[in-house]
Amino acid sequence: MVDLHLKGSFADLLFQYCFARTLAERWGYTLRSAPLAFFPNTRRALPGKELKCPHRKWSGDWPFDETRRQPIDESELQVPPNCRLELNGTFRRSELFAERGEAIRQDWFAVSDVPSLRPFGELAICVDHGASAHARLQAREIIALARAVPHTKLSLFTSDPWHPDFENLGPLQPELIVLDGWRSLVEIGAFQKVGISRSHFFWWAAFLGRAREIYLPQNLPDHPSNPVLHPYPGNVAYRDERFIYNWLPPQEVLAS
After folding, report:
1. Is the pLDDT of residue 231 over 70?
2. Which three-class secondary structure state does DSSP give residue 65?
3. What pTM value is reported for the model?
């Protein structure tokens, strides 16, 4: 049995569920988890093998085995542990569930309240989600992305339309879409071109949506690229043909 204890932000819950369900399906184990709000398919039971004991507990991002007091080895993710496994961590392991990307979008986290698909020429840039200054896209980044990506209309998703950065966007004249929470995730999903800030929430909005091109933030000397999804043993890029990591032209530098 895989016994998942959900905790943290909305985005964290999605990572935790995907991590737990991927392992449960891989091992043929029962998954015990509370359902996730807005995703009715997570209410369905996942049948499988149930073991009440022995018992082990994993925590952290890269799983740390609380029972043995050491990080787990990569090979342990492949082989059934022959025990009841309790998961009580964040588990931002996007590369682990990459193989189940379509199942996640079409089944696990499928939604019925879907807006009409936006034309391919429209570009959405997700600026902030009630996040810290570190996670927010700066004006220079918005301008660079808008210049690099061909588009006919620019929309900026923000929870703070009065931020002074919006006064420094020059001739872009974007549409500001002021939404937060679930509704913003749904609306972002209608765009086929999406640029995201350093936000796990926006990572999920783009991943679950219908985008054909997803532009990740650049790694600046004073503003590192995030979201960092796998801090141990290395920051490996999520492998998805829609994800574009190096969109900045070689001759262009984002000045501080």
Report:
1. no
2. strand
3. 0.88
